[in-house]
Each structure stands twice: as structure tokens, then as C-alpha cells.
Amino acid sequence: MNDEELTPHFEELKRVLQGKVDDSEIMNELKRYVNDFHIAPDAAKRGILRKYGALESTPFQTTVVKQIDDLTGNEQSVDLLVRAVYVEERDITVRGSPKTIISGIVGDGSGTASFTVWEKQNTKMEKGSVYWLRNAYTKTWNDRVQINIGNRGSIESAEGETVDVPDRVITMEASECKIGEITSGMSNVTVTGRILSTEERNVMVKDEPKTVYSGMIADDTGKIQYSAWENFELKEGETVCIKNGYIRSWRGIPQLNIGERAEISRVDDTFGTLPDGAVTKSIGEIVRTGGGIDINIVGTIVDVRRGSGLIERCPECNRSIFNGECQSHGKVEPVLDLRLKLTVDDGTGAVSAIVNRELTEVLTGTTLGAAEGLAKAKGSIEPVASEMAQKIIIKRVSMTGNVLSDDYGPMMIVKEAAIVEEDVTAEAEKLLKTVEESI
Ligand SMILES: [Zn+2]
After folding, report:
1. Is pLDDT above 60 for 56?
2. How far apart are the CA of 337 and the centre of ligand 1, in A?
3. pLDDT above 60 (res 59)
4. Per the domain annotation, does 21 fall within a domain?
5. Gap between the Cα atoms of 144 and 194, Å rounded
6. Which of 5-9, 91-95, 435-439: highest mean pLDDT?
7. Residue 234: pLDDT above 90?
8. How far is the CA of 318 from the centre of ligand 1 (A)?
């Protein structure tokens, strides 16, 4: 198994071991068990937990039943009897593989919380129905508890059980906030911003034609995509206050929905000139707040990961493949492409970055043609990645793109990238001058 395939197992071990064992040690153990000893991942995980004395203390046996209001965000295994207040299925990509998850809001007599079912499989959930969430784990996001159902958890229908969710806990006060502060964990918001663009699209919703009105809205801290089912006749350049909008996320990127309860008013524009293009953020900030659009980061390339360099793609579906074999299309004549999968760190955190061919050529100075030539000469595509890595590893890079975010952290789809040349001579002269002055 490669790193990508091992990652979910690694994450699970990490969660159970709760920082008692170094990340790298966990990964090395996992590789040893799975790749060297050819042990199935589930058995390997049990073996590793046993090795660190964690199997007895794992939540396999010790599940507690709690009410939503009593959740702390640190539960490893908890059962909850809830009513589904809002449910949606979404297709996401986790480390390059598509999967379907269920997310939404559940409530009980004590409150409501957002939830995610990470392994959908045969799970069906309906708004209004009552369920037992078994073996769930929790996390906090912006001081709010989130309920997660991973591959150890399950959803059981609990029809017949009575769960009343008081209206008042569903309706959350829309707090006024800056667009740059909006995160995917938020629910209702009130924002003021300038309409940058407008768009009308006709879509089919449950076999009915509908028009969705969408576009971009920005203030001095950032921009966000908005959408509405109603035509508010928003015009480019005007400034509006949107009261009671709600946030839904698409792959970790928050979007502002103008729903039935929203109110829109035209207001005076006090922004002046809005920042043109991308907003620069620290990676720590991104890790904390989730994804976003048009974000710029500057950091050091600390890793060129597996899957970088010269890769094969399926001519039918464009997915990356190995040895000319596509999971969906079988044996195909592969199309060669260049790609970089980087880990970029700026001292406040790390983000993965996917770099397309064009920018890979720019960053590494290696064209697709040259890469093919190298592969031919060496008789393998492997040396291309190491050759490229040598040119860019530990260099500083400035990158702009959309940042997606999932259970495994943030990932930038890079739209612009450049190596930041550090002016060594100027730095040396400055240092020398300081030294001379102090003599
Ligand atoms: Zn294919």
C-alpha cells in the first residue's frame, strides 16, 4: 500500500493513540506491518495498538451515551440518540479518491450539532427521522462540537424513540462577521460586501427547472461565492448587507447561501478599493479556518510527495493511473503528464499543494518533453520525481489557489506559483553593514 492508502489507517491510529506515540513512528510501524509483513490493515492496526498498550483503553469497549449539550469535543466513542434536522449527501475527494459522505445537523432535547458520516456505505438518513449514532467521535471547530462517524461507527434507525428538538436551538442567531472570517463550521451569518459578479444558471432540482442566482461578494478581508434561489436583482458593484445568510461548504470551501430567511438591503459602500486578487494567509490560519478561494501562501517546500513527477493518466477519465491500468477503464494507452504533490510549510502549519503540468514546468524548469526523455534514458518514470525534488526541495515558494479542506487537512489546488528567490547578496551586505556599524 502506498502512503495515500495508508493515510486513513494512520489517522485512525493517531486518533486512538492520542499523541502517545510519534507520528513518524506510527507510520513506520504501519508500513512495517502492512508492506513488510503483509498483514491486513485491520489486523495491523490491532497489532500496533496492542504493541503500545492501547488496545485495552481503546473505545472499542467503552462507549458512553451522551446528550449533545454534554459533548466536550474530545469523545473517542460516544452513542447519541438524535433527530436528523438537516441531511445532505456529498461527493468529496479524499487524497485523490472520490467518496460519498453524509453531513448535516442533528439535534436532541439539549441542543444541535453538525455531524459527518465519513463512510456512507449503506447508510440512509432522512430529515426528521430518529437515529442512534453509535461509536461516534467528536472534534471542535470554532468552539463548536462536531460529531463524526468513522469506519468504527454506525447509524441505527430508532423509529419509535421520541426525540424533541426545541425550535429555539435550531434557530441560531446570525452573527455579523467579516467575509474573511467565514469558516465552513459556521451556520448563520450576516455580512456586508460588494457584489463582484453575478451569474444566472438553470438547473434541474427533483425534475423541476429552477434558476440559481450566484456570484462573488467581497469585503476588505476576502471574498466568497454566494447563491440564491430567488432573484434579488443583485448588480455588480453595489454593496449589500445580507442578514441571516447560511454557510454550506463544498469540499471545505465555505459558500454563502441566501435562503428564505435572509434579508438583503442596499447599503453605502465604505470599502474604497478592495484588495485585487488573492488574500495572503498564514497556513496556520488556513488549518484553523478551513478552505477558501483565491488564497496566497508563502512557505518552504518541505516535501515532494509520492505521485509527483511524470505520471500516467487515463485517456478516458483523466485520473492518474499506474502501469497503464485504470480502475474504471481497465487497460488503456496512458497519456503522460507532469504533476507535483507538495507539502509546503510556513512555520505556522503545513498544507498539501497539487501543482499542474504548466506550473510544474515553471517551478522545476523541466518540461514534459525533457521528463519523457529522462524517463526513456533511465528506463523508468521514477527518476523524474527525484530529479525535480532536488531542484525545488527547501526552496521558498509563493502559491495562489483555492484551498480545499477535508478530514485530512487543507490542500491547495495551485493556480499560480513562483519560487521566491532569496536575495542572498543583499542579505549578506546588510548583515556586513550591521557588523561594521557595531565595530
Ligand atoms: Zn479511466
Report:
1. no
2. 15
3. no
4. yes
5. 29
6. 5-9
7. yes
8. 6
User: How many of the other CB atoms lie within 10 Å of CB of 193?
Assistant: 26
The pLDDT value recorded for residue 340 is 97
Residue where one domain finishes, among candidates 114, 142, 169: 169
CA–CA distance, 121 with 126 (Å, rounded to integer): 15
My answer on whether 289 and 409 are in the same domain is: yes
Cα 320 to middle of ligand 1, angstroms: 8
Mean of all residue pLDDT scores within the chain = 85
Q: How many domains does the chain have?
A: 4
Cβ-count burial of 370 within 10 angstroms (0-12 exposed, 13-18 middle, 19+ buried)? middle
Q: What are phi and psi of 95, to 5 degrees?
A: 50, 45
User: Does residue 377 form part of some domain?
Assistant: yes
Take residue 103 and report the three cell numbers written for it: 453531513
* Residue 171 banded pLDDT, cuts 50, 70, 90: very low
- Give the structural domain span for 253: 173-266
**Domain at 221, CATH number:** 2.40.50.140
For residues 195 and 244, membership in a common domain is answered with: yes
Compute, in angstroms, the gap from residue 96 CA to the centroid of ligand 1: 14
The alpha carbon torsion through 328, 333, 338, 344 (nearest 10 deg) reads 20
The answer to whether residue 429 sits within a structural domain is: no
What pLDDT is recorded for position 92? 76
Centre of ligand 1 to C-alpha 4, Å, is 19
136 and 159 housed in the same domain: yes
Name the nearest CA neighbour of 59 among 141, 139, 136, 113.
136
Cα 315 to ligand 1 centre (Å): 7
Question: Within a domain: residue 432?
Answer: no
One domain for residues 245 and 159:
no
How far away, in angstroms, is 8 Cα from ligand 1 center? 24
Cα 219 to averaged position of ligand 1 atoms, centre (Å): 42
Tens of pLDDT along 355-384? 999 999 999 999 999 999 999 999 998 899
Interval between CA 97 and ligand 1 midpoint (Å): 13
Which segment of 42-46, 215-219, 238-242, 409-413 scores lowest on mean pLDDT?
42-46
Q: How far, in Å, from the CA of 236 to the mean position of ligand 1?
A: 41
CA of 323 to the centre of ligand 1 (A): 13
